[in-house]
Write a structure and sequence with these properties.
The structure is a homodimer of 273-residue chains. Chain A is an alpha/beta fold and 273 residues long. Chain A is built from twelve helices and eight strands. Chain A has one domain: Alpha-Beta Barrel (TIM Barrel). Chain A is globular, with a radius of gyration of 18 Å. In chain A, 54% of the residues are buried. The interface between A and B is large, with 59 and 59 residues.
Chain lengths: 273, 273
């Protein structure tokens, strides 16, 4: 999928929402487990059907499928095929290893499964990510700055040049590919960091996880993060897929997405003007 | 597996060798593919049988199994059960994500599969690795300093305090657990780095990948890296498992391991004295 496709999709649908399918078999409604042989696939099918008017991307958190062994991987593959044509798909896998190993991870998620993108860790540097760039119209989404407590440990180490490790990491990693095949994961907690990152990479797409239902935060994040190509995908997982617990869980998910989309639309409208 | 078990095993067998089962279905002998339904499992079975006198650990590079989808995961599980009792097993997966996701990766490799340890990436910091520490007698093996070219990009960034990112990362990560549940991946390229790392973590076990057949290098690495509990596992993968290509590939693998073991024994003997 090309950058122009993603930008066109956002313009058309007036949303930058990514729905995170962190589907935990222990948290899905009982009636699915009682009535379906493949309850996770059925859960994902209904979530995708209900939420597709309000989002442009679906992110699969690979851990949730991998943890169930062989049947989890089968569910992953079958769920991925349920995502309609034209949506951007993300394998949230946080992979990264020496070249010959990363080449196999790339083969897994870009060939065996036909994801549009994969999240990766930058700790091992350029050659550990090179194999992911050998695919046309596929994207590498590199961890930049995360919003968890542990981000202090490596990402926020203070460098001799006065900056932070995450800044230098993003600066270097931006040169591994280009704006047409590289995005960065940026935890959307602090406005000042998003502004700083936009100084380093004004044109890249950012994938922002962890946005909840708070309208105020969302507006601030979008105001800091949007660029001329929109340049943002904002993910919510548990806040959407577990919004409801009963028979109408998919309607509850759709309602959350609809609200998020309407809030996003306000900021997107400003870019379009 | 407890640290005292690993130390006792090394003392008994006089080797710190770890055999890396980076088993690529495209590189195993044709006769296995022609005669066995599960050629990867048969390959691993013969490699394990042939090499077990000379090693203390087996490392499974998860990418090589994952890349083949469902059948790869089946091969991983069945191959793991072929490792005899008493050997240390490593899931070389380089995982690491926010807490609830890492908890699932831990479940995958420690519960679904019964590995003794998993390799992880430190980029997201303490809380991203905490879930891996919730298991008795399991080990977390954290990326410290790697020997690939890309290690310059993040690990060798120069800090305000004069050190390198990898040093501060190891210092902090050593406090996530203790010497009884934490190891570090250290690429064995430069003697000075190993000495520096031993100043920071004198007592931890180090997992060193990428040692080939060069006896000189091996002696230097062992001289710098060994501690009173031995504190080293030295891995070789392709140099062992693809040493031969024909019917007797397993004998060729055993020969390489035997030579490595004999070289290791010289250094181990010095610790024992």
């Amino acid at each position: 999928m090309q950058r122009s496709d993603i930008t066109a999709l956002i313009r058309e649908k007036q949303t930058v929402l990514c729905v995170g399918l962190d589907t935990d078999i222990e948290r899905i409604p009982d009636f699915l487990k009682q009535n379906y042989d493949r309850p996770v696939v059925e859960f994902n099918r209904r979530i995708i059907e209900a939420t597709r008017p309000y989002c442009v991307a679906y992110k699969f958190n690979i851990a949730f499928y991998e943890a169930r062994g062989v049947s989890g991987w089968q569910d992953l593959g079958d769920s991925l095929t349920l995502v309609p044509e034209g949506f951007f798909t993300i394998a949230d896998a946080k992979r990264g290893d020496i070249g010959n190993t990363s080449a196999l991870y790339a083969r897994t998620f870009f060939d065996t499964y036909n994801f549009d993108s994969i999240t990766v860790s930058p700790y091992m540097g350029s050659d550990s990510l090179e194999p992911f760039y050998g695919y046309t119209d596929k994207w590498v989404i590199i961890l930049g700055l995360t919003s968890n407590r542990g981000s202090e440990d490596v990402q926020m180490q203070r460098l001799a040049n006065g900056g932070y490790v995450y800044e230098e990491t993003i600066r270097r990693a931006a040169a591994y590919g280009d704006v047409d095949n590289t995005m960065f994961v940026v935890g959307a907690t602090k406005s000042s960091y998003i502004q700083r990152i936009r100084e380093i990479i004004p044109d890249h797409f950012l994938l922002m996880p962890g946005i909840g239902k708070q309208g105020g935060d969302l507006q601030a994040v979008m105001s800091d993060g949007l660029n001329d190509h929109y340049g943002l995908l904002i993910n919510s997982s548990r806040g959407i897929i577990y919004a409801g617990t009963g028979l109408n869980f998919d309607r509850a998910a759709a309602d959350v997405c609809k609200t998020l989309k309407e809030e996003m639309q306000i900021s997107i409208y400003r870019v379009d003007k």
